[in-house]
Amino acid sequence: MNEPSTKTNSGSGESDTKSSPPVVTSARWLFVLLGLTWLVIGIASIFRLGTASSVVPEIVLWIFAALMFINALLLFWLGWGIGRDNRLYYYFGILLLAVNVLLTLMDDFGTLDLITLVINISLLVLLIGWRSIFLSK
Questions:
Q1: Separation between Cα atoms, residue 11 and residue 129, nearest integer Å
Q2: Which of 27, 80, 124, 136 is the residue whose CA sits 20 to 30 A from 72?
Q3: pTM of full prediction above 0.90
């Protein structure tokens, strides 16, 4: 019947990003910020590969770096997709953020871990607290 004014009826299932609620715009930018953070961490990990003296085999360090880049790509994808009338983005975002929080807490904890933890938890609170906006059609 009546459609919210923030949605388009183009048949593509996408919302108009110019008229998105501020909470959706904030979530998008936080996903992008997290993606950039993981991209930087992944690049830094690659540059440290040859210099780090570690008991961990180098192939394992390459796999960790690859996982960081995959995480960054998924976060960028979620930043693009959140608020586009597709519940997949919302639920996958909750899942990925929860996994990121758990993995952050199970690792050596440093400054970058604190930064990503704060952003992950802030974004989780944002998504869960305003779920009616993200899940509305």
A1: 28
A2: 136
A3: no
